[in-house]
Specification:
- With 489 residues, this protein is an alpha/beta fold.
- It has two domains: 217 residues, P-loop containing nucleotide triphosphate hydrolases (Rossmann fold, 3-Layer(aba) Sandwich), CATH 3.40.50; 152 residues, P-loop containing nucleotide triphosphate hydrolases (Rossmann fold), CATH 3.40.50.300.
- Strand 3, helix 5 and strand 4 form a beta-alpha-beta unit.
- The longest helix is centred in the N-terminal third of the chain and has 18 residues.
- The strands form two sheets. It has a seven-stranded parallel sheet with strand order 3-4-2-5-6-1-7, with helices on both faces. The chain has a seven-stranded parallel sheet with strand order 10-11-9-12-13-8-14, with helices on both faces.
- The chain is built from 15 helices and 14 strands.
- It binds adenosine monophosphate.
- The site of adenosine monophosphate (AMP) has 15 residues, from helix 3.
């Protein structure tokens, strides 16, 4: 007789009946791997360092047990069996995150559960770029959950808007990004204000060396949880080599010939996002841009439209690499590569979420080959570089892409009164114009020998088109999510 193996259930954790019914009402049936590993340790009160990518269910992995701990009745002797009530200016669970989008998204996740458990649970998201007075006002009554970006939170501390006598838990989400985007100092400063007795939970997609000092300083004998790399197989990673000047055409071709319901495209700069939106519009492909130059309400609207499924394509900078949670997002395209290998993981983590398969495509031109090799190496990847017929990259690198910069306005600089006076003193008897006349450039001498070399530094670059890289013996066969995806309609 075989023993029947049943799927793990949420009731194994000893959650209160309210938490279990909240989980049921949001439709989660079985805990994800990270939830199975982290929830029992958090409920025990242990500090945790968890390696978890976005899309793995990591938010619920900390929100659910912390909600359980904060809402159970027996916690506070002062109130007998009543639940502890948050006092003015106090915060009970502090969640620090690297982006505004993530503060909003985690806030939504907390509220989603909290409203089913106890409608009195308060939750507040605070971030820079908006008026601080509103947050100060909202903090007067205290909050159970405060989700904040570090710089804004430090401002609130300095404005004496927040107190920590009731602080139970500190959560750092996306620690690698917090440290990588220069928030380490702010986080360290914030920690100095917190009471020593507290539970600390760190979640990070990657484990770069830079996070080590913070981990050592803050976590007390933490339970270290690393996710099973099997999870990564949910994302089918593709690499397409293409000439730089063919990238947009290839992108348009991919968008037209694959029926992805929604696509998130990453560019490296704000201006590149806007340019790409325009270039696609010329090919009758509608896309919206999402980047830091957009006003907060514009960014919110773009995300809202995308999440509601009203727009198909977003072109974004790394601002969207974190905090964008669309469960059914089938495809992410790296039009430009991210600078850091860690960001590659975060970008592709926008797809293949919550058990749903997805595809991540990187379009790479000759000048990006070297960088992509570094990304692969740092992430322990060995991907097959392919090309699409009609868009194959040349063997010899074409001239490197020219970065177009906004042209400086030519014009006459206005002279100061002092300069006019000096010129007049120097004998200019004509009335002196207050504008400087641009000095004429000496005509350039012709080069002595005309160069017979090609104009660009055309080094032959090996193209791995179509040919699989040599496989390691221990490398498992990578399943293709949808092999027909490249097929023409
Ligand atoms: P996260 O990794 O926290 O960004 O979560 C990714 C997505 O997975 C979110 O949309 C969650 O609502 C969803 N999710 C989290 N846990 C579960 C679960 N146990 N079952 C189904 N979906 C889940």
């Amino acid at each position: 007789m075989y023993k029947k193996i049943s799927a793990p259930l949420f009731d194994q954790f000893g959650f209160s009946a309210e938490i279990l019914s909240a989980i049921k009402s949001v439709g989660y049936k079985t805990p994800t791997d990270i939830q199975q590993a982290a929830i029992p340790r958090i409920l025990e009160g242990r500090d945790v360092l968890a390696g978890a990518e976005t899309g793995s269910g990591k938010t619920a992995a900390f929100v659910l047990p912390v909600l359980h701990l904060l809402t159970r009745g027996e916690e506070n002797a002062m109130y007998g069996h009543k639940k502890e009530i948050v006092q003015a200016h106090q915060v009970r669970a502090l969640i620090l995150v690297p982006t505004r989008e993530l503060t909003i998204q985690i806030g939504q996740e907390v509220r989603k559960f909290a409203k089913e458990i106890d409608p009195w649970v308060k939750c507040l998201s605070v971030y820079g770029g908006v008026n601080i007075d509103q947050s100060i006002k909202e903090l007067r009554v205290g909050t159970d959950f405060l989700i904040a970006t570090p710089a804004r939170f430090l401002e609130l501390i300095k404005a004496k808007a927040v107190k920590f006598n009731q602080l139970h838990t500190l959560i750092l989400d996306e620690v690698d990004r917090l440290v990588g985007s220069g928030f380490k100092e702010e986080v360290e400063q914030i920690i100095k204000y917190l009471p020593n007795k507290r539970q600390n939970l760190f979640f990070t997609a990657t484990f770069p060396d830079e996070i080590r000092p913070l981990v050592r300083k803050v976590l007390d004998n933490p339970e270290i949880i690393k996710q099973d790399p099997k999870e990564k197989e949910l994302i089918d990673q593709r690499v397409l080599t293409v000439n730089f000047d063919q990238k947009t055409a290839l992108l348009a071709d991919l968008l037209n010939k694959n029926d992805w319901s929604q696509v998130l495209i990453f560019c490296s700069a704000k201006r590149s996002c806007d340019n790409l939106v325009k270039k696609l519009a010329e090919k009758d492909i509608k896309a919206l841009a999402l980047h830091g130059n957009k006003k907060q309400h514009e960014r919110r609207d773009v995300l809202k439209e995308f999440k509601a499924g009203n727009s198909r394509i977003i072109i974004a900078t790394d601002i969207a690499a974190r905090g964008l949670d669309i469960v059914q997002l089938p495809c992410v395209i790296n039009y430009d590569l991210p600078r850091s290998p860690n960001d590659y993981v975060h970008r592709i983590g926008r797809t293949g979420r919550a058990g749903v398969e997805g595809m991540a495509i990187s379009l790479i031109s000759h000048h990006e080959y070297q960088h992509f090799t570094v990304i692969e190496k740092r992430n322990g990847l060995r991907l097959q570089w392919e090309s699409i017929p009609g868009f194959e990259a040349d063997e010899i690198a074409p001239p490197p892409p020219r970065r177009s910069r906004p042209k400086k306005k030519k014009g006459h600089k206005k002279l100061t009164k002092k300069q006019i006076k000096r010129r007049q003193e120097q004998g200019e008897d004509k009335p002196v114009s207050p504008y400087k006349t641009p000095t004429k450039k000496e005509p350039e001498k012709p080069a002595e020998k005309p160069a017979d070399k090609p104009k660009h530094n055309a080094k032959p670059v090996p193209i791995p088109t179509g040919k699989p890289k040599k496989k390691r013996d221990d490398e498992p066969e990578k399943p293709r999510v949808n092999a027909s995806i490249w097929g023409r309609k």
